[in-house]
């Protein structure tokens, strides 16, 4: 429902007008209708033009979808997917640039996924649609245009990725960087720069914000002893805060430095290009934070 | 026994006087009876149905019984709430029974119903039982939501009753979604989405109506207009309190919601219309004797005279009682006996519900997901309380 940015291109021809529907621009109405259809056992995929507009429908996502299975003691399950671009695009201003990962991942009963690569997008969306619970699927407009190498396995029609499992995009020994969506690409760029300075960074692509793969994050930190959390969204009460707390709870003794946090600036997104650049994490910020985490303890010993 | 059976087949109008009448039992005849509704229907951009409603003696007696059961259940819930056995919110339906009962008589269990939080009687109408209702109100295991939902979250999916919703107005788009699924599956069934005069002003209603009209969904929007949205009278909340007209390009019907036969006729009409043509709005002119909820005495924004006036002039149960007696389908004593049976049924159900234990503590973590992947969930102190979601 709600066609945009050509993601649904070709679907109408393939599946017909009974299954691919354009809606009026009335999020509360069409989201409620989709959730009601899911109550009856259909499997709707709701598209928000961007997740900024999901706020018009957030009551249905949370109160009508996320909580229903619990309140009804399992009678009313809601096999629905809410998908669309999330986070900052370029120059679209304050009302069109927010990242909703932290808000939706806050809610028990929702699953929240954030693909980075083409493999992620394909595998996670398939799992999301097959999943019997409500899934919020946070894409990224700038990533739509990026190309990624893909294996034959990924192209197979049965390919899917498990929900709740992160991916180690790049293995490393000295520091862990967690990221999701577009920031994974930035973290990988930062890791390249860090490696030239003798710091081996392990980049974790979270893929799943809720459930969060705490096991993978903690296993990595127990190996590297240092952590930078990275996200595009506002910093306060963000995804990084939860990751930091998880590590403090489960792997405190393994930390050799305080956890570092890189996030979007704590301001509504400005329009001017220079200010916008300051409002979103840049690769430099990630590199700087990683170095801070590495130089607080004794200088880097021989990295065996 | 044979004599009694013979007597039952004699239509009431032909029954010979007193001697035989004393031996007559309550009529369970299914011989058709035509009764006029209290007032004609008022309609908006559609021709209204006839005022003449076909019913049977058996149906009228069922109406009496069902509405009396609902009435007694709600009154008992009032006492349980005051005894602090029911906590939080408790929104009672007494006065509005004719809507629940009349609607059910017009449709099948394949049609869907969704409503807001004043849901106890709809649950009963859809086949829910008293024990699971009272147990849910008291937060016990035998509750229809195993104690996890409470008063506002009763559901009965096997009877196509989808709750039970706490957010004013949300149930209307959800109901249009149920209708979408019915149409998608070519089921020739309809959905009744109930809402109040307060919710009638919600924007999402109009969004859902617009989409329903565009896609010709079998949605029937039923405004249970009890004239007060919480404590606000309809004329202070709605610029246009003619709720049956608010659909604008969608047809509407105004119905005396205290007349169970009018409700039945309107719902039958609405279902046929919705399956063939798309959405329709029904406005049920009804009344609640209780306040908005148990926290509201209901008398600070209405006069006691108004409340007792409605009780005297328009009570749905009394109306059916008069009909039954006028058509000689039962004696006053027989109806009183029915009411006594109902009281006992309700008392027994409460006793049984009280025996049900509170949910096991493990239930804190059940049903968060259908499929949990073995992830963990946490209590207030996660080092003390955590669980793996199945």
UniProtKB/TrEMBL annotation, chain A:
Residues 1-146 form the Transketolase-like pyrimidine-binding domain. InterPro entries: PDHB_mito-type, Transketolase-like_Pyr-bd, Transketolase_C. SMART domains: Transket_pyr (SM00861). CDD domains: TPP_PYR_E1-PDHc-beta_like. The keyword Oxidoreductase applies. NCBIfam families: PRK09212.1, PRK11892.1. This is Pyruvate dehydrogenase E1 component subunit beta. It comes from Zizania palustris (Northern wild rice).
TrEMBL record, chain B:
PANTHER family: PYRUVATE DEHYDROGENASE E1 COMPONENT SUBUNIT ALPHA (PTHR11516:SF60), PYRUVATE DEHYDROGENASE E1 COMPONENT, ALPHA SUBUNIT BACTERIAL AND ORGANELLAR (PTHR11516). It comes from the Eukaryota. Keywords: Oxidoreductase, Pyruvate, Thiamine pyrophosphate. The keyword Oxidoreductase applies. The pyruvate dehydrogenase complex catalyzes the overall conversion of pyruvate to acetyl-CoA and CO(2). It contains multiple copies of three enzymatic components: pyruvate dehydrogenase (E1), dihydrolipoamide acetyltransferase (E2) and lipoamide dehydrogenase (E3). The keyword Oxidoreductase applies. GO terms for biological process: pyruvate decarboxylation to acetyl-CoA. Residues 66-360 form the Dehydrogenase E1 component domain. This is Pyruvate dehydrogenase E1 component subunit alpha. InterPro entries: DH_E1, PDH_E1_Alpha_Subunit, Pyrv_DH_E1_asu_subgrp-y. Tetramer of 2 alpha and 2 beta subunits. One of its GO terms (molecular function) is pyruvate dehydrogenase (acetyl-transferring) activity. Its cofactor is thiamine diphosphate; Mg(2+). Its EC number is 1.2.4.1. It catalyses: N(6)-[(R)-lipoyl]-L-lysyl-[protein] + pyruvate + H(+) = N(6)-[(R)-S(8)-acetyldihydrolipoyl]-L-lysyl-[protein] + CO2.
């Amino acid at each position: 429902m709600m066609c945009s940015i050509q993601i649904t291109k070709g679907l109408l021809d393939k599946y017909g007008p009974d299954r691919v529907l354009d809606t009026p621009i009335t999020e509360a109405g069409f989201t409620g209708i989709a959730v009601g259809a899911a109550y009856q056992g259909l499997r709707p995929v709701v598209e928000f033009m961007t997740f900024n507009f999901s706020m018009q429908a957030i009551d249905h996502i949370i109160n009508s979808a996320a909580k229903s299975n619990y309140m009804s003691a399992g009678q009313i399950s809601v096999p629905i997917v809410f998908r669309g671009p999330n986070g900052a695009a370029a120059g679209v201003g304050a009302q069109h640039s927010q990242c909703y990962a932290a808000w939706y991942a806050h809610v028990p009963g929702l699953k929240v996924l954030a693909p980075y690569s083409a493999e992620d997008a394909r595998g996670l969306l398939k799992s999301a649609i097959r999943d019997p619970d409500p899934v919020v699927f946070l894409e990224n407009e700038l990533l739509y245009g990026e190309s990624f190498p893909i294996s034959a396995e990924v192209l197979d029609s049965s390919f899917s990725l498990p929900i709740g499992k992160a991916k180690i995009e790049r293995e490393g020994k000295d520091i862990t960087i967690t990221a999701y969506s577009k920031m994974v690409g930035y973290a990988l760029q930062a890791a390249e720069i860090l490696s030239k300075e003798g710091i081996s960074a392990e980049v974790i692509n979270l893929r799943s914000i809720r459930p969060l793969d705490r096991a993978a994050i903690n296993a990595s930190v127990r190996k590297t002893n240092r952590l930078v959390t990275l996200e595009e969204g506002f910093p306060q009460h963000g995804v990084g805060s939860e990751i930091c707390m998880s590590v403090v709870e489960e792997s405190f003794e393994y930390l050799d430095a305080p956890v570092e946090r890189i996030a979007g600036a704590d301001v509504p997104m400005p329009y001017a290009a220079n200010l916008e650049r300051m409002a979103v994490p840049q690769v430099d910020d990630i590199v700087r934070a990683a170095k801070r985490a590495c130089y607080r303890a004794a200088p880097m010993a021989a990295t065996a | 026994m044979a004599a009694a059976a013979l007597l039952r087949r004699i239509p009431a109008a032909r029954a010979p006087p007193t001697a035989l009448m004393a031996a007559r039992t309550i009529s369970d005849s299914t011989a058709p009876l035509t009764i006029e509704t209290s007032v004609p229907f008022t309609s908006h951009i559609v021709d209204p149905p006839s005022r003449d409603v076909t019913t049977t003696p058996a149906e009228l007696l069922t109406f009496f019984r069902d509405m009396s059961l609902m009435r007694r259940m709600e009154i008992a819930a009032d006492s349980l709430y005051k005894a602090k056995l029911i906590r939080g919110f408790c929104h009672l339906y007494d006065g509005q029974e004719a809507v629940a009962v009349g609607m059910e008589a017009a449709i099948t269990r394949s049609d869907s119903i969704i409503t807001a939080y004043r849901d106890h009687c709809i649950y009963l109408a859809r086949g829910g039982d008293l024990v699971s209702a009272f147990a849910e109100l008291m937060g016990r295991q035998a509750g229809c939501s195993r104690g996890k939902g409470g008063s506002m979250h009763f559901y009965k999916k096997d009877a196509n009753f989808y709750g039970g919703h706490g957010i004013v107005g949300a149930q209307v788009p959800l109901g249009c979604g149920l209708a979408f699924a019915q149409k998608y599956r070519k089921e020739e069934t309809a959905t009744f989405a109930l809402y109040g005069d307060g919710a009638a002003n919600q924007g999402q209603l109009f969004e859902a109506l617009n989409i329903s009209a565009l896609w010709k969904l079998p949605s029937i929007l039923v405004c249970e207009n009890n004239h007060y949205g919480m404590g606000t009278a309809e004329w202070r909340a709605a610029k246009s309190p003619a709720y049956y007209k608010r659909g604008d390009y969608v047809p509407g019907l105004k119905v005396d919601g205290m007349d169970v036969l009018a409700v039945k006729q309107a719902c039958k009409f609405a279902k046929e219309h919705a399956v063939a043509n798309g959405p329709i709005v029904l406005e049920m002119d009804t009344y609640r004797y209780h306040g908005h909820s148990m926290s509201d005495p209901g008398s600070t924004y209405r006069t006691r005279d108004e409340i007792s006036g409605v009780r005297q002039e328009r009570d749905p149960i009394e109306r059916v009682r008069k009909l039954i007696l006028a058509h000689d389908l039962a004696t006053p004593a027989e109806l009183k006996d029915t009411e006594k049976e109902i009281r006992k049924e309700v008392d027994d159900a409460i006793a049984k519900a009280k025996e049900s234990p509170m949910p096991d503590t493990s239930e804190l973590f059940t049903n968060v997901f259908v499929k949990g992947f073995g992830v963990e969930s946490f209590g207030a102190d996660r080092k003390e309380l955590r669980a793996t979601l199945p």
